[in-house]
Amino acid sequence: MTSLSEANDDVIRAVEQTGDQISRVKEAIGRLVFGQEQVIERVLITILAGGHGLLVGVPGLAKTRLVHTTGIVLGLFDRRIQFTPDLMPGDIVGSEVLEEGENGRRSFRFIQGPVFCQLLMADEINRASPRTQSALLQAMQERHVTVAGHRHELPRPFHVLATQNPLEQEGTYPLPEAQLDRFLMQIDVNYPDMEAERRMLLETTGDVEATATAVMRDDDVEAAQRLVRRMPVGESVVDAILQLVRSARPEETDNEEVRDTVAWGPGPRASQALMLAVRARALMDGRYAPSVDDVVELADPILRHRMALSFAARAEGTTVSGVIDRLCTPFR
């Protein structure tokens, strides 16, 4: 029978080994995606935590390149779907076709859709109709799809990295709150700084361009995800997560600003997301347990899309990020 100390030693050794792997993963992605260190880190945290990410940014910031490169470096089979208003659920999950065999008998055969992959890029997800969005929602939440009453399991691991363009809103269908809550993290993709953009100009417009190579395999990714769930979490971190998430709910908080400005706050899934994400961030840094600083660092990308402000608060220029930042003040 394994003792507690032996189990802790196993976790420590696994953290050291996996942390080194992830450092090489970050470096490999950074050689092809320039000036987006924080974005790369948060995408990897999302995958290590076993969740899905929503990338928000204007066109031309290498979101597609980031997802494809991440898939190659992590050894995951990736696919991309361009979402459009006429996209149907069958175009994502697949459909059954009627075939006639050599003996003349007819039968249905299921043809898998592009969702049958390990890393799916849902490009401009808010351009699809609510019906199509709901088909992807089932896949994200349950890791399987149902077609004609038959259940089809998706590959493991399975992650969705969806993109939204914040500028062009004509012909879009805003994601419902239930689907937004399925995304572990909202990741803002901003413009690179001048030095990063200079490097991008020089390295992507020549006759030779760098290519990605695998650093991990899908088995390694699953092992890292299991390790994240085994990492210990101190009581101070658990208390910080609970206090922060509950203080963002207008029905449960004594914070006057939240009661006056927040229409609805984050649910329990936000607490779960924070718990997994802070562990994943600690693992990326080679630490054996997360700290309260990890909670503060990840509060905004995890809570922002799970909260909404009242109309009056928006009219006065209040932002969700500003509210979250002030809620984090006691933990700094």
From TrEMBL:
Gene Ontology terms for molecular function: ATP binding; ATP hydrolysis activity
Gene3D superfamilies linked to this entry: Magnesium chelatase subunit I, C-Terminal domain, P-loop containing nucleotide triphosphate hydrolases
Domain ATPase AAA-3: residue ranges: 52-185
CDD domains: AAA (cd00009)
Pfam short name (any one): AAA_lid_2
Limits of the ChlI/MoxR AAA lid domain: 258-321
Protein name: AAA domain-containing protein
